[in-house]
TrEMBL record:
GO terms for biological process: mitochondrial tRNA 3'-end processing; tRNA 3'-terminal CCA addition. The gene is Trnt1. The keyword Magnesium applies. It comes from the Eukaryota. It comes from Alca torda. This is TRNT1 nucleotidyltransferase. Keywords: Magnesium, Metal-binding, Nucleotide-binding, Nucleotidyltransferase, RNA-binding, Transferase, tRNA processing. Gene3D superfamilies: Beta Polymerase, domain 2, cca-adding enzyme, domain 2. Its cofactor is Mg(2+).
Amino acid sequence: SPQFQALFTPGLRSVAELFEKKNYELRIAGGAVRDLLSGMTPQDIDFATTATPAEMKEMFTSAGVRLINNKGEKHGTITARLHEENFEITTLRIDVVTDGRHAEVEFTTDWEKDAERRDLTVNSMFLGLDGMLYDFFNGYEDLKNKKIRFVGKANERIQEDYLRILRYFRFYGRIAEKPGDHEPSTLQAIKENAKGLAGISGERIWVELKKILIGNHVNHLVRLMYELDIAQYIGLPLDGSLEEFDRVTKNIQNLCPKPMTVLTSLFKVKDDVTNLDLRLKISKEEKNLGLFLVKHRQELTKAVGPEPLRPYQDFIMDSREANTNSKICELLKYQGEEHLLRELQEWTVPSFPVSGHDLRKMGVSSGKEIGTALQQLREEWKKSGYHMDKEELLSCLKKL
């Protein structure tokens, strides 16, 4: 495929040559293989090899290739930089001990053993640089049929790393064609192990949850989180507002909302946002957006009459905060106001045409009076729909 051909940059050709010379096998692994088989260009590419980290270091160093950060080395990953490109290459491995969060690994040269410790069948394939597909668990079949299944027994895979529960949902939202197409035994395994998510760090959970919130079937998947007792362990309110969630997930179709906008529809009160933050360590911006939506979603709505956008524009004009504009855009998505959203995105925030300097020229000298006059003129300007220019406002001042 053209996507596959495009991978062969000068960097990759050089890497492939080095491995070939030493007779080490090198293949593309995991997500990149899934993307290529779906006809997509992979965002980042992981490679797997039979060479150990020590052998790779030896090989790269003697070829004068620069190695970057050695953080991944104990898990078997070496990162080499050739032709302005980074290549992340990991030795085949078996998980020896897992505690549901991290694994201790031991290296192997057995490709099937490495595939066996991966999470989902669609993520467990390898692709040779000659275009040969190595698929030990029917991942390609599942991908064509849009099925999401764990490699081997769901129970065992989940207990190796409980975050895989959310990864299952995320890939379901990416690949499955319709909601509700799960194997009952998989859902049973998820329910039995849901509590394991309590031990996973908030940051890791939030990365997965955000992707679920902007993927397909989000309504179905979040309802499933409540049915399978997952919600309570990942910071969601126990009595999440599922009717509001239904309404908002319909509103936001095709509007590309931020994950927080979708999630806030489950929240009834500000505390729900605070509790989510305590569990998931969301960013300040995300937290502020959640609080903003909970506070304004009911009363800040479009005006009846010829200027439906006015309340939102007034809010932006009165606000002293920097990113009010983008928060209002998210509010409009939440409310499903597609036309108003487009209008607002085309609207440029007008700047108030009068300054204190203009008033001094007119003989207003005390600071207090200038402040009051500016305030009054701002009100007049607002009433005019921000259309009055400097001249009109100043002549208005004479009347006042």
